[in-house]
Amino acid sequence: MNPIWVDETGWLTGLGPVVDIDPGEGPGRYASAFEQLRRTGRALAFASFTFDVDEPGSVVIAPSRVSSDPAEPVRPRGRVDVLDDGVDAWRDGYERAMKAIHGDHVSKVVLARQVKVAVDGELDAASLVARLAAANPGCYCFAVAGLVGASPELLVRARQGRISTLALAGTATDPEQLESVKISEEHKHVTESVAGALERHLAGIDVTEQIIVTHGRMSHVGTRIEGPARPGSTVVDILADLHPTAAVAGAPRDEAISLIRDLEPASRGRYAGPVGWLDSNGEGVFALALRCGQVEDGAVTLFAGGGLVAGSEEEAELEETELKLAPMIEALGQLPS
Question: What is the dihedral of CA 82, 83, 87, 89, to 10 degrees?
């Protein structure tokens, strides 16, 4: 499976013999990936890191060449059969998470739902990414070592001396619902965590803009932060400070991550981790690996999550996960009627 990245600038597909880089675990994994890439002599690497910094399984792939030719978004022919909808495990996690929130152990925790499906059609990564890109304009689409998805959330872009990010939190099908107290509280945690992490990498901030971002039936509150980079700051330096944000973990961060390890039925793997590319100059673009699935031999584990805070309602939060699962299910094929 060739690694693929698609954003507003176009396609990047890794071709030819590759060098596989193991960045290891811990907070130094991003710097390790960069240092190893430079030693290979390759210009660029595609990367997908685990959500949990202490967990193995991050993937960094340095191809011998890169193509900008897009794939064709042919219609899927397969049928998607749900093997485990993940609802019971999610409901159990929701109940325990809300107890922790009401007990003041955390103010926000992001709970992910895992859904296992089987697809009876061919799963070609390039075609799957092309379908996702066509159906989800404005998203960051990717395929790296079986992790395929279309994320709406830019984690960091470090290019030509500038740093930019788009922090999303708060989801609704009606944009007017984004003005609720619950969503304002959820978004506040995210913007504070992102702004704090970027502080030592930015020489200044010349763009701070709150916007509404809409993809399909979902609208989100987003805050765009941009500014000139401090001399010597690289994309891997920023990743080490920035991830995981409150958008995918919660607040306080360490307490939320500990709770996620306990609540979710299995490891997230690379879901909600940084996914994108970096080059040998220290530049790169990374999104959060959201609206995605891990593809393995015709079976796919899909992931969808949402931020829980005081005031969250169980059925509304579960419906949000359904909406977030839809882009991948539609790209994979059709659910049986």
Answer: -160
Q: Which residues are catalytic?
A: 108, 153
In this predicted structure, what is the pLDDT of residue 30?
98
> What was the pLDDT predicted at 104?
87
Spatial CB neighbours of 179, under 8 Å, sequence gap ≥ 6: none
Cα separation of 287 and 278, whole Å?
Answer: 12
For strands 250-251 and 10-21, give the pairing. Answer: unpaired
- 274: tokens are 């940084």
Name residue 251's beta-bridge partners. 108
**Residues with Cβ < 8 Å from 24, sequence gap 6 or more?**
32, 56, 58
- SS3 of residue 223 by DSSP: strand
The pairing of beta strand 4-7 with beta strand 10-21: antiparallel
Distances (CA, A) of 317 to 212, 249, 292, 299, 327: 19, 16, 18, 26, 17
Is the entire prediction scored with pTM above 0.90? yes
